[in-house]
């Protein structure tokens, strides 16, 4: 299924997760990151990912703590803006940039956006003890996107080493393992 048709579904689940997050100090499945660090990561890169959908390069600047105020409202607004920006087929066509001068295929960046929403949505959910459900078509698409960029992601430190997951495991568990996450992670 086309990514622009899945982005809204991914965002809707992530928005429900954001509403259920408790402590910013809770650990997440992302090694060395608590909820605060993960929220700051999403708020930091969100505007650049949104701009990339319009084929604009936006330098995200220095990463700062954006969780001092109503971080939930900020994160909700950012997720909604990003989903809207990537919700049209034109966002997925041609090339774009993610804050720097290097051009990347727009569908690769769009796939990363889907991955950000699902993977980090899952990270936040697990930190809060939540068990959200993503549509299998979406999870399979994100699995394909992670597979497409896993080697590059590991070289850049974006993904940890693959966590072995049985081939018979549900699609979400296989996608998580491929991204370097333990599907059975608990705080």
Q: Major sheet: order of its strands?
A: 1-2
Give the number of helices.
Answer: 6
Amount of helix: 40-55%
Termini separation:
33 Å
Which stretches of 5+ consecutive residues score pLDDT under 50?
Answer: none
Number of strands: 2
Task: Return the average pLDDT rounded to an integer.
Answer: 93
Question: Explain this structure to me?
Answer:
- The protein is mainly α and 187 residues long.
- The protein is built from 6 helices and 2 strands.
- The protein has helices at residues 3-20, 35-53, 71-85, 106-127, 136-155, 171-178, and strands spanning 95-96, 104-105.
- It has a two-stranded antiparallel ribbon.
- The longest helix is centred in the middle third of the chain and has 22 residues, at 106-127.
- It is globular and about 40 Å long.
What is the topology?
Blueprint: H1 3-20, H2 35-53, H3 71-85, E1 95-96, E2 104-105, H4 106-127, H5 136-155, H6 171-178
Antiparallel strand pairs: 1-2
Helix pairs in contact: 1-3, 1-4, 2-3, 2-4, 4-5, 5-6
